[in-house]
Amino acid sequence: MHKKSPLRSLKKKQDFKRVYGNKKSAANPLFVVYAAENEIGENRLGLSVSKKVGNAVVRNRIRRWVKEACRLTFVQAPTRGYDFVVIARSSAGTLPREGSFAVVSGSLSQLFSRLGVLSND
Questions:
Q1: Spatial distance between the Cα atoms of 40 and 32, rounded to a whole number of angstroms
Q2: Which of 65, 54, 53 has the alpha carbon at shortest distance from 101?
Q3: Following DSSP, what letter does each residue of 65-114 receive, concatenated?
Q4: Are 121 and 113 in contact (CB under 8 A)?
């Protein structure tokens, strides 16, 4: 039996706007992360990977890396009740295929720590 993922998807435009409007964000050369508390008690993740990042193959690879890095981060530090929007910057598209998941994961962990949303802080 599968364990429930610690993240659900953020899909509605109004939810994205609410997270952006909260103005709680952190950034580095690869990503910008916005965070806002929600009332549902579960973490939700919204992704924005524009065409500036690369072609469809590159954008989908970045999406997969970000989703998995976030899943692993919140399994290890189970925070509840936040909505996150992760925006990939164009430099994320220049990462090589091999060995870059660790870079993405470390980068996002650093941003979540800076936002103060990890429960082990």
A1: 24
A2: 65
A3: HHHHHHHHHHHHS---SEEEEEEE-GGGGGS-STT-HHHHHHHHHHHHHH
A4: yes
Do the beta carbons of residue 48 and residue 85 sit within 8 Å?
A: yes
Q: What is the dihedral of CA 75, 76, 78, 79, to 10 degrees?
A: -110
pLDDT at 23: 84
Q: What's the pLDDT at 40? A: 87
Q: What are phi and psi of 11, to 5 degrees?
A: -120, -30
Residue 73 pLDDT grade (very low, low, confident, very high; cuts 50, 70, 90)? confident
Query: Over 80: is that where the pLDDT of 108 sits?
Result: yes
Q: Quick one: which of 119, 116, 120, 99 has its CA closest to 35?
A: 116
